[in-house]
Write a structure and sequence with these properties.
Strand order of the largest sheet: 2-1-3-7-6
Strand content: 5-15%
Distance between the termini: 25 Å
GO molecular function: rRNA binding; structural constituent of ribosome
Shape: elongated
CATH topology of one domain: Structural Genomics Hypothetical 15.5 Kd Protein In mrcA-pckA Intergenic Region, Chain A
Radius of gyration: 38 Å
Structural class: mainly alpha
Keywords: Mitochondrion, Ribonucleoprotein, Ribosomal protein, RNA-binding, rRNA-binding
Protein name: Small ribosomal subunit protein uS4m
CATH architecture of one domain: Roll
Largest sheet: 5 strands, antiparallel
Order of helices and strands: HHHHHEEEHHHHHHHHHHHHEEEEEEH
CATH class of one domain: Alpha Beta
Subcellular location: Mitochondrion
Number of strands: 9
Number of helices: 18
GO biological process, one term: ribosomal small subunit biogenesis
């Protein structure tokens, strides 16, 4: 039977455990060097034994540990030519004092980061979620041998390393605050869109270059520019003689006596292009090439008509007067000039829309504020009675459904995210090869000590392990 889990996270006692718990991280943070001053040798050994046993196999009873302990340590002696001509670092053999525990299946699962603590790893094993070489193992003290492959059900790994799932009431309270903050943000954007636009750009500009959010914004600006380039090329290729003639006829036929103002919206608000388009339309009228009822025709229909004008059949030419032919030729020439001029106008227009990768600025879009919509406020007491109704009621831009409960059937935060404060504990061992994609790991060999390092992961240094070894090598006497 394991020890009872009593005061494992005590901040007063400050013991360091084999756990990813945030309180354990605080104890690790405030833990200083173990003080051996003004203590007798036995007191030093006892203190070292207390500290190391609180971390290494704290779930084992003392009698079980003393039965497992072996005074023989595993180390590697480098005898190759790489050591010639320089001093060899000391091999910290006594850091292997608790190395025999690393063979246990429950501790190997914790070292491979498949569980958040040794006790949770033990629970996974007892609940038949762990396999060694394809065989289900239900003994946490199972001893691994070099070459053994063990794996944990992926669902359990997600549970062990995932953030805590909030209750429905907690989630709805968070969503209520999120909705209130979002609505205030939308209101501020709609009241002062340009000011808010510049404020966002300035926020990213003031960030450090190493900040991931600034890198994301830079990538967004680069993708924005690439999208504009693609749109520009697509629009340039789409502007043919037929399309330009169709736009001229569409703009001119909108009123009885067209002026420059009717052509500007169709030619990028450029006065020079509008003037040429007006002249082109007048020539088309002179040549009697504008079809009857053109004001009710679509751009696609006018484009088909323009194609027949550009590629006139012999029969059509024979029915036209010399004046009409001359006017149509003039219209076609102006159309060619429009095509050339319009190409440079389009490119210049899109270049002006591009963002700057140096200043991280994007030209202001007047329609930007229209994309933002507020969210209807929610009533927590009403939605707490029906989670399905709550999931439909919450529809924020970054979150669909209740916070942390995208899939209520899962025992962890969904969509999945890692538990907080995981990074300080993310230390992969030398003697285990881990695949997080499949939640498999290979126990390569027993951990050994090498010159300058030991493969047994421990928060304590060599002096502490020396005294702990001295304690156990005499059977605790």
């Amino acid at each position: 039977m394991p020890r009872k889990a009593v005061l494992l996270k005590s901040l007063a006692r400050g013991r360091i455990r084999q756990s990813f718990n945030k309180y354990n991280l605080f104890n690790l943070y405030k833990k200083g060097d173990v003080d051996f001053r003004s203590k007798t040798l036995y007191q030093q050994k006892w203190t070292a034994k207390q500290e190391t046993r609180a971390y290494h196999g704290e779930h084992l009873t003392e009698s079980r540990w003393q039965t497992t302990f072996t005074p023989k340590m595993d180390s590697v002696a480098q005898l190759d030519a790489s050591l010639t001509g320089r001093e060899t670092q000391q091999t910290p053999i006594l850091l292997q004092t608790f190395g025999v525990l690393e063979k246990r299946l429950d501790i190997a699962i914790f070292r491979a980061m498949f569980a958040s603590s040794v006790r949770q790893a033990r629970q996974f094993i007892l609940h038949n979620n762990v396999f060694v070489n394809g065989v289900k193992i239900s003994q946490p003290n199972y001893t691994l041998r070099p070459g053994d492959v063990f794996h944990v059900r992926p669902e359990k790994v997600l549970q062990g390393l995932g953030a805590k799932k909030p209750s429905l009431l907690e989630s709805l309270k968070i969503d209520k605050r999120q909705i209130a903050i979002w609505n205030r943000y939308v209101k501020a954007i709609k009241e002062n869109p340009r000011e808010k636009w510049l404020e966002i750009e300035d926020k990213y500009r003031r960030m450090d270059d190493s900040n991931p959010k600034k890198q994301e914004w830079l990538e967004f600006v680069q993708n924005y520019n690439k999208t504009l380039d693609l749109q520009m090329e697509t629009e340039v290729k789409s502007q043919t003689k037929e399309v330009i003639l169709a736009k001229v006829m569409l703009a001119g036929s909108s009123v009885t006596e067209p002026t420059l103002q009717e052509f500007l919206p169709h030619f990028y608000e450029d006065a020079a292009l509008g003037t040429k388009a007006l002249a082109c339309y007048q020539d088309l009228q002179t040549s009697k090439s504008v079809p009857e009822g053109s004001s009710s025709m679509s751009l696609a229909q006018l484009t088909e008509h323009a194609r027949t004008l550009i590629n006139l059949s012999e029969e059509k030419k024979n029915t036209m007067t010399d004046g009409s032919k001359k006017a149509l030729r003039a219209a076609k020439n102006i159309c060619s000039e429009l095509l050339t001029s319009q190409d440079s106008i389009i490119r210049k227009l899109y270049e002006g829309k591009k963002g700057s990768e140096q200043t991280l600025a994007i030209p202001f879009d007047p329609k930007w504020a229209q994309k933002f919509q507020g969210h209807k406020p929610i009533t927590v007491s009403e939605l707490a009675e029906d989670e399905a109704k709550a999931a439909k009621a919450i529809n924020l831009p970054w979150q669909k459904g209740v916070y942390g409960r995208h899939d209520p059937s899962k025992p962890y935060f969904t969509p999945w995210k890692p538990r907080p404060f995981l990074a300080p504990f993310a230390i992969l061992p030398h003697h285990i090869e881990v695949s997080f994609k499949t939640c498999h790991a290979v126990y390569l060999r027993d951990p050994v000590a090498r010159p300058g390092q030991s493969e047994v992961i421990s928060p304590f240094g060599l002096p502490v392990h020396e005294r702990a070894y001295m304690y156990y090598v005499r059977n605790g006497k």
